[in-house]
Amino acid sequence: MAIKVNGDRLWSTIQDTAKWGGTAKGGVCRPALSDDDRAVRDWFVAAGREIGCEVFWDELGNVFVKRQGKNKDLPPIGIGSHLDTQFTGGKFDGILGVLCGLEVLRTLHDQGIETNAGIVAVCWTNEEGCRFTPAMVASGVWGGAFTKEYAYSREDPQHLRFGDELERIGYKGTVPCDGNVNKLSAHFELHIEQGPVLEDEKIPIGVVVGVQAIRWYNCTVTGQDCHAGTTPMHLRRNALHAACVMIDALNSIALRFSQGVSTVGVIESKPGSVNTVPGFCHFTVDLRNPDDEVLEEMEKEAEKELAEIATRLKVTHKFERFWTCPATKFHPDCISAVQKSVDALGYPARTITSGAGHDSVYTAKLCPTSMVFIPCLDGISHNERESAEKVDCEMGANVLCNAVLHFDAQLASGKK
Amino acid sequence: MAIKVNGDRLWSTIQDTAKWGGTAKGGVCRPALSDDDRAVRDWFVAAGREIGCEVFWDELGNVFVKRQGKNKDLPPIGIGSHLDTQFTGGKFDGILGVLCGLEVLRTLHDQGIETNAGIVAVCWTNEEGCRFTPAMVASGVWGGAFTKEYAYSREDPQHLRFGDELERIGYKGTVPCDGNVNKLSAHFELHIEQGPVLEDEKIPIGVVVGVQAIRWYNCTVTGQDCHAGTTPMHLRRNALHAACVMIDALNSIALRFSQGVSTVGVIESKPGSVNTVPGFCHFTVDLRNPDDEVLEEMEKEAEKELAEIATRLKVTHKFERFWTCPATKFHPDCISAVQKSVDALGYPARTITSGAGHDSVYTAKLCPTSMVFIPCLDGISHNERESAEKVDCEMGANVLCNAVLHFDAQLASGKK
Description:
Two copies of one chain form a homodimer.
Chain A: H1 7-17, H2 35-50, E1 54-57, E2 63-67, E3 77-82, H3 95-110, E4 119-124, H4 137-142, H5 148-153, H6 162-168, E5 186-192, H7 197-201, E6 205-211, E7 213-222, E8 226-227, H8 239-256, E9 261-263, E10 267-270, E11 276-277, E12 280-289, H9 292-312, E13 316-325, E14 328-329, H10 332-345, E15 349-354, H11 359-363, E16 369-374, H12 390-412
Parallel strand pairs in A: 3-4, 3-5, 5-16, 6-15
Antiparallel strand pairs in A: 1-2, 2-4, 6-14, 6-16, 7-12, 7-13, 8-11, 9-12, 10-12
Helix pairs in contact in A: 1-3, 1-12, 3-12, 8-9, 10-12
């Protein structure tokens, strides 16, 4: 039988802790390693100790609130996310995942449930990457994607170093930030969807099967500036018009591939005069697909169609990839634990692929990982308007709690 | 029989006078009412007096170099253009028209030809409008489009007033700047095409039949910002994509109407992040056609198609006209005089409509007017690279000279 968390307590915790960095518009401004980040960490440490947990933090300031299990030989099961926010962030992105982790520990404590492996709620440092780039840097060090020294050397816009700021707020620990040393048996993460799919389909739970692959490109188009009045249409080499035809083609390419998305977020054209045909245009392209091979096909189609358009419209172009992030496939055991939890609770759910990156992308490199999504208002995040329903938060925490217990039971049975 | 100007003298004059404001790259920087503008005017006045002409300038600084005719009762026939340039202008735009006017007077003087009406070479003040907006302000006052006071009150970017600067360079005259007082029987203007049509068709002379109508618009498109990774294509309201489809449609509209042109010269989209679907886009639209009624139809098509695209792509839009310039039809007598001149000289020629505005647009309001175009390199003007062939300049001046003589003969015969 599925157990349930205390939804009222979870909701109060969300509202109460939003005071650290709380904004006039109801959002949260809590950049990594700020005084507000320290304050919410201090509260998290105290809340963990209050229910008898062991608390420690590693060299990157990742905070582990650990409830012991019966079997001391098994690495604990992690429930993690982050407590830092964007500069104009909301109350849910990341925060909800850590607070649900704590709520799971509180529920196990209240109900006297003894698990096989330990269960640890984790606050990963600097997921957002808005003060110190890149994003997800501390889970990245844990997962082996970056070195500790690289992370320490990152500077904020005021040239304050990550390492110095971590020390200043008192969270530079001595436990190695290394998933091969400070191990986890698995990692589960609950997060708001940050997109409109669940809300649009009126489904409260997303069983996240992976994080889609991303590729970023710059495209420049060169034609010839000329006078808008004196140059007949057939003698033009209009860079902006060619770019527009290319952007429409990129949109159509995404529609032709299942689950593909294509976005042009930035466009500039020169010389930028009402009565001059633009001779130059630059735009960015973001292509994504849950499947690396399908994304490769999308890229090939884009290359082919852009070249055809350039030839037809008498311009030259360059289409250059400058960033690649391969797809993450979450672990079947973790996905199955979440699905069993959903089934036991009888909640409407669907499988979903995350469009955005999360700490779980890096934990997945070293341990079985998956995620749970809940809907958020209008699919909006990284915004003070970010919002989620109390009932959805509670249902999500219930799914998380039982998924962890399912995985723990599987660990106990020795099946991997 | 057609008479011929002195092509070598004309070419020398073009090269010699380019020293006033001459740039390192071979262009000319001679904004209206600058010291260089004064210097070239002083030279023009002296050159006119040297061949026995009467020289005067009006309240707007328009300089008239007048060769007397037999019939003192007839207003003179004007040959005008301008000696000012853009900040990074060339040696030909406007300048060529005034120097060809002088070359016609010199040729009549050399060959002792007595005309019926007087012939006057005119330098119109501040055609370019780059230092003092708007463009063609002094021919505009002469033609009744602006008041003298309006022109005097115009300020340059350093807040120097047109009236003060005109006085400072010594060209604020007392002759009324009023085409109903200081009359012309007709106005002819030779100009580089500023477009690629003649060069493309390898035709040295354009018989200009009018100046096309122009309408300018702002278009704003509003959708919804959203995450490039988490928002499926069918749930997007992508303002930039919709704008691109609109821009392609505007291009197609121009292609469907004879001699229509459509240009989007400025585009901006927000918020301008690689991984955010833009929720807002603004672009400008410039529609032109030689015929006002056809332009009206082009506008109606644009309104209809943009609205359809907005509905289909789930965005809202505003398409607002903010400037209208009706078509100018040049006078049949002047067009016919140019055509007769071309025929007599045996030059290849075609009729053409000017895509850009000229002083002749305003003279046409008060007297029969037409223009002669010659090719320019790559259709480029308002640029230090601006260039024209010596042979084309000479042929253009020959056409201008004989056109004036044809019109003068017609005046003498009493036919209007």
